[in-house]
Amino acid sequence: MALVEIRDVHKKFGRVDVLKGVSLDVEEGEIVTIIGRSGSGKSTLLRCINALESVDAGEIRVEGEKVHARMRDLKKFRQRVGIVFQAFNLFPHLKVERNITLAPLLTGRIDKAKARALAEDVLTRVGLADKIDAWPEQLSGGQQQRVAIARCLAMAPHLMLFDEVTSALDPELVGEVLKVMEAMAKQGMTMILVTHEMGFARNVADRIVFMHQGRVWEQGPPAKLFANPETPELASFIASAK
Amino acid sequence: MRSFSLIDFVSLFAALRWTVVLVVLALAFGAPLALGLAMGRISRFAGMRWTMAAIIQIIQSVPLLGLLFFFYFGMPVFLGIQVPAIIAVTIAYTLYTAAFLGEIWRGGLEAVKQAQWEAGSCLGLSLWQQFRHIIAPQALRLSLPPTVGFLVQLIKGTSLASILGFVELARAGQVVSAATFQPLLTYALVAAIYFALCLPLTLWSRSLEARLDGSR
Question: Which parts of the sequence belong to the ABC transmembrane type-1 domain (chain B) (predicted)?
Answer without folding.
Answer: 12-205
